[in-house]
Q: What sequence folds into this?
């Protein structure tokens, strides 16, 4: 067991930008982000995008405004807009939430990626920037990902990003008039160095061909990084 006799509460995340090569995470600002963030979650795919989220979909921009007002007024959840640096557009949102700085535990959630952002290098880098901030800058012990157990896409994403499945909380919540069994995933501080190495190798420019296709998968790089880390002991 780790000796935590010198443990002290960690800082809470604050409203600051996080810069990557593909994305920039910007503290939510209704005036700057509202129109593009609404557009990111609108259109033909809206019902699918919002299916497992506690809010939305929104029928029009005016209906979205009350959510923006509530979201920017709270520090937990602490919302960020995700800007694609290539296009300059806001293409999604997510938040830090259930912030337990006394114990060094924090969660990512309220994730919405537009169809243009989903399954891209930018989408992966956004999670990497969150995790890097959680572990390297704030010094947290545990980074959590939770989702509706029926949301297979989210569960696959959690595993791809290096979170470990820990179980299902049955009848955990009532969401949009229905039951939600919640699947729990987490990444620990001692696991992060290998995960960080895999993320950074995957995001490196030489891992993509001229068409932007990956040469080596994140899963393969994670397996290699974990093996290297294990062999070091």
A:
């Amino acid at each position: 067991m780790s000796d935590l006799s010198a443990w002290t509460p960690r800082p809470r995340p604050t409203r600051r930008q996080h810069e990557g090569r593909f994305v920039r995470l910007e503290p939510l600002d209704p005036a700057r982000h509202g129109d593009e963030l609404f557009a990111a979650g609108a259109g033909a795919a809206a019902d699918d995008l919002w299916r497992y989220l506690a809010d939305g979909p929104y029928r029009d921009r005016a209906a979205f405004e009350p959510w923006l007002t509530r979201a920017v007024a709270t520090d937990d959840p602490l919302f960020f807009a995700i800007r694609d640096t290539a296009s300059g557009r806001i293409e999604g949102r997510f938040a830090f939430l259930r912030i337990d700085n006394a114990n060094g535990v924090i969660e990512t959630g309220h994730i919405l990626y537009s169809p243009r952002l989903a399954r891209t290098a930018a989408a992966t880098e956004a999670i990497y920037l969150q995790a890097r901030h959680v572990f390297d800058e704030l010094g947290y012990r545990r980074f959590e990902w939770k989702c509706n157990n029926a949301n297979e896409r989210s569960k696959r994403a959690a595993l791809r990003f290096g979170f470990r499945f820990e179980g299902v909380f049955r009848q955990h919540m009532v969401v949009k008039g229905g039951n939600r069994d919640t699947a729990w995933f987490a990444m620990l501080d001692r696991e992060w160095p290998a995960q960080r190495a895999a993320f950074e190798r995957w995001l490196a420019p030489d891992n993509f061909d001229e068409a932007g296709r990956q040469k080596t998968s994140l899963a393969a790089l994670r397996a290699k990084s974990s093996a290297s880390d294990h062999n070091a002991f």
